[in-house]
Amino acid sequence: MSNATQLIHSIPVDPLTGSLSVPIYQTSTFVQEAPGVNKGFDYARTNNPTRKVLEDVIAELEKGTVGAAFASGLAAIDAVVKLLKSGDEILAVDDIYGGAFRLFTQVYAKFGITVNFVDTSNVENVFNVVTPQTKLIWLETPTNPTLKISDIEAIAKVAKAHDILLCVDNTFASPVLQQPLVLGADLVVHSATKYLGGHSDLIAGLVVAKDPEVGAQIKFYQNACGNILSPNDSWLVIRGIETLHIRLKQQSKSALKVARFLEEHPQVEKVFYPGLESHPNHDIAKKQSSDFGGIVSFSLKEDTAEAAIKFVTSTKYFKLAESLGGVKSLLSHPATMTHKTIPVEKRRAAGVTDSLIRLSIGLEEAEDLVDDLVNAFNKTATATKIKEEAALT
Ligand SMILES: *Cc1c(COP(=O)(O)O)cnc(C)c1O
Question: Ligand 1: which residues within 6 Å by Cβ?
Fold first, then answer.
């Protein structure tokens, strides 16, 4: 069975009515025959049939045993951190998602959980920073926005040897391109807001555990803390998943075309895309994922925020917005948007230079997207020329 077929048929037909679409169970509670005697559902925070379908589907797609759906990607990350206790350490990828950085350093730091950030694209670094207190390794691969790749299999070996849980934020790749649990990770999280939902119309998060006991703990925190996904939004994510395979395939194809176009463009300094042979971790990306995804970043030769802002406000199809993974192409300027709270020198050192621009490739025709970029480059060049001429007179 091909992946696309498995993905589509992982979503069950309703056993009660034959409904081809998963029913939305909009209820808070379930009638019991006698105390504790029920049909597997008693209260909808604990379990809801629509949410359960989504949880079972994502567990199957990620090749895990237990899935859990949360109100946001950050709520999903939060549930994983709750596996730890005061005194434990997290070893995390250095250019981590900003919201995860804030959660670790501004919320969990208060409860005595510390975090060491390292460049995990070099496995040696992981080896060197592990301590007896390290209980969780946190990876994102590819990372945002510089698309660094970490070797999941190699890091899983280090984690196993030290009895540390390895969690991979698989938001950028999705289970269609990369399955971290198969490569040795213990947990996967998703911001389902992005590719799984796929239509920029909801906020949702998912956790999948490989081990049923770890999964039971995640389910415990989901119920005990209550950050659950609603039945309506669960249904929307399920519907998004139905087209995940075809979307990711098309978006990866278009992204490679756009990345190759950018690589040749005279106004571009550097292109970040794991599918390019010039990407420093191209070989690992090729080994652990079936394609390279829909996110492309690049910097300008004119490395100023001004030039980048001119560029991101000159496109027609690429809309200026945070977030990614939807049907409509988006672009953003991390230095003044997602990464503006990071101190300048630290931000630049992490590769997020003043002119860095991130593209999320949608489902428009790749040729139209390239034309849109050509126009934005021309407008940016013209603005620069006018400015230079004004300076001369
Ligand atoms: C967006 C995102 C998150 C957070 O997800 P929300 O659904 O916005 O809470 C976490 N990790 C990555 C990689 C993301 O892109």
Answer: 72-74, 97, 99, 140, 144, 169, 171-172, 191, 193-194, 203, 205
